[in-house]
Amino acid sequence: MQRLIRTLIRPWVLSFLMLLCLEGFGQDKHFTNFRMAPLAVNPALTGAFEGTYRLTGVYRGQWTSVTSFGNGFNTPHISIDMPILGGILMENDWIGVGLSVLSDNAGFAKYRSGFAGTSATYHMGMDDDYSRVFSVGFQYGRENRKFSGNDIRTPSVLFGDPGERLVLDNEGNTQAISNGSIGIGVTYKATINDQGDLWRAGIAMKGIGASKGSFISVDSLSQDRTNLTKPTLVGFGEASMVMTDKIRINPAVIFQTNSGFVTIEAQATADYLLNPKKRQIVTAGLGYRVGDSINLLAGMQIKDIKVGFAYDITMSGFSGATRNGAFEVSVGYIGKVFKKPDVHPIILCPRL
After folding, report:
1. Residue 148: how many CB atoms within 10 A of its CB?
2. Alpha-carbon distance 147 to 144, whole Å?
3. Angle value at C-alpha 73, between 60 and 35, nearest 5 degrees
4. Within 10 A of 97 (CB to CB), how many other CB atoms are there?
5. Which CATH number applies to 2-335: 2.40.160.40, 1.10.268.10, 1.10.1200.10, 1.10.10.10?
6. Are 184 and 238 within 8 A, CB to CB?
7. Among 183, 261, 294, 310, which is least packed, fewest CB within 10 Å?
8. pLDDT tens, 65-110?
9. 260-288 residue pLDDT tens
10. Closest CA to 115 of 32, 196, 39, 221
11. Where are the domains of the chain?
């Protein structure tokens, strides 16, 4: 069985599987420090770490100066995942499961969209030391959207059109649109040498089967309110290379696309080991989102806790309206719960 799976997961087979996703296109919420939000990038990253469980949280705020209201856009994201059930089909395989929640709040109309879902991933270790791992992930969740209808003026209000009106609840908010959404993804990780240099790449398609829906009630039957949105295609690649005993560099790139809208970001960070015994590491780096912004990244790790900070300096034609730029604060924790060995005391003979 192990030899058969190794034969199937050849580079050309892996490339073909990834290309199967290329028919879907999508643009989604994005994070500058995307490596601190793995489940928001690709469901195949669920359970892809060494430990018992992983907690991550990211908060992104941006565009607070776009309007005089100062509401801007803010996007919090939290997730928890863990590896479970090893040795299923192969000696070195395991399953990862996770839960993630993302919310997006925008502007004076208080537009709120969110996603909550669960994910499961099958990881196949191709070697005894897990130097090569191929992963296939699946995610299912619910998407919902609503906004404050009291702050919106539709044609029915401006022009007295009785055929079009917002569907509001008792509090003046639009009725929430909620529907199911599916995500699939694959990743491949390979360790290059004994020093620990490695690379990982993956591709995912998210938002499969999500409906556009409508906040407006239209008397005309010509509007199709069951039309599906186009999925979001997300691809990423990252590497980690040891330069000295204290310095490691980490280049990465991510792209996502939907309906012709493409976002590409490249970045590189460097880790500096401050204290090996306490595992204290500081991180700093730069990134560039094509046609949009320059990214400043920083962070620190103490044992199993990692915190990060990112700031986007807008370079596009929209820079005049975004004087405050965008910022992110992130935190991650990998918990390790291992059973203590049951050691029986041994009485040593004093003559030995």
Report:
1. 17
2. 11
3. 25
4. 16
5. 2.40.160.40
6. no
7. 261
8. 554 444 567 889 999 999 998 878 888 899 999 999 998 776 555 6
9. 789 999 999 999 999 988 889 999 999 99
10. 39
11. 2-335
What does each C-alpha distance from 258 to 31, 34, 145, 207, 319 come to in angstroms?
16, 18, 18, 11, 23
Are residues 163 and 133 in contact, defined by beta-carbon separation less than 8 angstroms? no
Which residues sit opposite 248 in a β-bridge?
Answer: 242, 271
Distance (Å, rounded) from C-alpha 301 to C-alpha 309?
A: 12
Nearest alpha carbon to residue 332 among 299, 284, 283: 299
What is each CA distance from 350 to 89, 186, 244, 290, in whole angstroms?
50, 60, 48, 73
DSSP assignment of 149-209 = GGG---HHHHS--TTEEE-B-TTSBBPPEEEEEEEEEEEEEEE-STT--EEEEEEEEEEET
Per DSSP, the three-state class of 352 is coil
pLDDT for residue 272: 96
The CA R_g of the chain, rounded to the nearest whole Å, is: 24
**For residues 164 and 216, is the Cβ–Cβ distance under 8 A?**
yes
315 with 325: CB under 8 angstroms? no
